[in-house]
Amino acid sequence: MQPSIPVSASPEGQKPLLEVRDLKVSFRTEHGPLHAVGGISFSIDTHEIVGVVGESGSGKTVSLMSVMGLINDPNAEITGSILYKGRELVGLSRRQLRAVRGSEIAMIFQDPMTALTPVYTIGWQIEEQVRAHTNLSGRQARKRAIELLGEVGIPNPSVTVDRYPHELSGGMRQRGFIAMALSCNPSLLIADEPTTALDVTVQAQILELLKKLRRDFGSSIVLITHDLGVVAEIADRVMVMYAGRIVERGTTRDIFTQPWHPYTWGLHDSIPPLDGPRPRRLPSIPGSPPSLSNLPPGCAFGPRCRFRFVKCSEQPPLEGEGGHEAACHLSMEERARQHAARSLRQAS
Q1: What per-residue string of b and e applies to 252-282 under the rule 16 or more CB within 10 Å gives b?
Q2: What is the enclosing helix (H) or strand (E) of 60?
Q3: What was the pLDDT predicted at 53?
Q4: Distance of alpha carbon 70 from alpha carbon 52, whole angstroms
Q5: For residue 238, which phi and psi values (nearest 5 degrees)?
């Protein structure tokens, strides 16, 4: 699969739509603090699609739920800065955050069956959000709900609008939830595993729909996923997360054609090849992700990395050039050598 090419970015000198600086999220537990997100910084430009990948527990969802202000656990501690259109979101009251959620920033959750309320029709739930953030009447909100269901590809939307979530298939529920997320034309859409548990045909339709959203509505999209194939299909840039930190980021072309971090290499190697001989067993990354309440000193990936050396006992900075950065102590020469060796193995 060919990686996508960035099609848009904010003009030079224009501030990003979303700018996160040194975001840290921790939870108090009986065993001590659990550091879910360990000080990450990133930005999202206008009309941009950014993929966030990594194993379960890497901090992907927690990071973006912090942006939405959806972490209400009394044991949670959130520090850092989250600037949306230049406005600081950290520290806003619940009422102020509710005014931003839905109208400015919307989220598509991983499982629409549990995200949707089962005792209300899909149309009622869309109408409720529309009326909460606009001055439309009930009749106008219903008309808007029907229009949205049609725009996301649901057949016969005037009938579907009165159906309950359990009466719809998984793909239809996901489309309905996307319609709800788009009801107020948000500038930023966060999609958390939107194609999980869907068959490949529906997955392709959902991805095409997300691209259409960017094209028709001008929305920026953050796509949280485990699936590198999905990222290659849709994203302009990619962030790779591990143990609550960003270990590599760059354009989709950078991450797929010249990855710099051993963890990213491991993710690539676990993908079945599209051509050539079929391997008897796919390579896997040895070991398991570390406990977030007891992270190893230095590079968190060090205990699982076959390239580990003495300097890895120190935390590597996220650095690079041309927008391509990695948190790894390996020299550029060694990275290039390992990349060439991997390419040779894959070709043989």
Answers
A1: bbbbbeebbbbbbbbbebeeeeeeeeeeeee
A2: helix 60-68
A3: 95
A4: 18
A5: -135, 140
Closest listed residue to residue 124, CA positions, set 78, 160, 83, 80:
160
- What would the DSSP string read from start to end of 294-347? SPPSS-TTGGG-TT--GGGGSPPP-EEETTEEE---S-HHHHHHHHHHHHHHHH
d(CA 171, CA 179): 12
Cα–Cα distance, 249 to 318 (Å, whole number): 9
Q: What are the pLDDT digits (tens) for 31-88?
A: 889 999 999 999 999 999 999 999 988 999 999 999 999 998 999 999 999 999 999 9
Q: Which residues, including other chains, have CB under 8 Å from residue 346's CB and lie 6 or more apart? A: 273, 276
Q: What is the pTM of this model?
A: 0.87
Q: What is the dihedral of CA 15, 260, 211, 143, to 10 degrees?
A: -60
Rounded to whole angstroms, the Cα distance separating 71 from 31 reads 20
Confidence tier at 244 by pLDDT (50, 70, 90): very high
> What's the Cα-to-Cα distance from 255 to each of 245, 264, 265, rounded to whole Å?
17, 8, 9
Q: In what order do the strands lie in the sheet with 245-251?
A: 105-108, 188-192, 220-225, 49-53, 237-242, 245-251, 324-326, 319-321
Q: What is the pLDDT of residue 341?
A: 79
